[in-house]
User: Fold this.
Amino acid sequence: MQEVKVSVLCVTYNHAKFIRRALDGMVMQKTDFPFEVIVHDDASTDGTADIVREYAERYPDIIVPIFQTVNQFSQGGMIARRFLWPRIRGKYVAFCEGDDYWTDPQKLQLQADWLDAHPSSGLCFHYATIHWENGERPDSVYPDDKMVAEGPFTFERLLKRNFIQTASAMYRWRLKGREDSVPRGMAPGDWYKHLLHAEGGEIGFIPRNMSVYRRHSGGVWWGSDTADGRFYLRNGLKHLAFYQAVREQFGYADPSREADMARHTLLAAVKAKNFKVAADLAERFPAAYDDAIAAIDKLPQQLAEANRLTGRARRHARRLKILAIALAVVVVATLLLVIA
Assistant:
């Protein structure tokens, strides 16, 4: 009997609306090797666990279910590290959360073949569709054309920006027995895993769209692209922990990025009167906190300058309007004289 070559990890919680499509995308994979799908349900209350059980019974050679009776995320998180990573049997690993899904039955085969052909590489990925469940934005493809046109996807580029959507990645798993090499309490954890697997090797890109990432109000990253203070209250400190980990592990720092995250987090904490978050920010990330305070101190001056410039622009616009009216009057008067 062949050994499992690819382990697929799926974390789900209250995804009853989405989990069937996620599981269908996994079990439809056509491969010339065995693969497993480890599904962790974190004590869902909406029937998600019943759907996972149904699929485990229908596909016993593929689905490996894990059911919690007490929600583990509320007990300290680290779900994948604690419950899924120790069960991995494949040398390659792919992720697909319960609210995302795969669209191409050749996905696992194509990515495993690419890694087989590039033994020095630890990671490959592909295009993914970003879908907004509420329809407020049209679907888009990630990475976009501009990012692709900038040239090869390298480790150096990945340090600056995460261009890999999680459900599109496949790793040559290097964390077996090294689970603690991923720091706790940071986010985005998937970006950090990308970096760990991309370091020292080529990043493979397969120009084929094979997955969908759903954006919805129940998702972890909802509000990340807006000024929603709730996002920064939930994730600001975790992001700063990520930047710190990247600096310590890979020697890369972007002070402006850290200061911007600290500023948003501090403003959100003050607005919500959540002084614990503000205190934690000052204690754990003092340099970023000081930069945030300095930036906030400049806000009144910047607002005054903006108002001054806006006032000047308005006065200039009024002058232009008056000149345009005067010019029109002159033109009309001249025409009347000519006609007369």
